[in-house]
Input
Amino acid sequence: MTPEIQQMLARRQRFIKRWPVVALVAAAVTLSFYAWAFIKQPILVNPVHVVHLIQNNALDSATQSLLAIVAPLMFLTVGALLLLLLLFVTVGLINEGRLIRLLEQKQAP
Output
């Protein structure tokens, strides 16, 4: 392998080794935000809470029509997509690390 390829592989390996920490922090921040929103701003993420407010006539009609189901589902979908993205990137990096180790084994005399 050329020195440039070896440097690139070394950089990728450092990134792959650091990724679990980055992914766990991003997942923890995302889940923490949703836990906070569920407790402090349930109108944004809890469809059951929105339905309860509607049944008790605690929302004005404009807010009702906007938040009835759309807002909670949107926030939950965005969070699920973010976590799914983290999962896909993690799996990809695991595979990349495995392939880099295979390359290194093939290059070793």
User: Anything to note?
Assistant: The CA atoms of residues 34 and 45 lie 8 Å apart. Residues 40-109 form one domain.
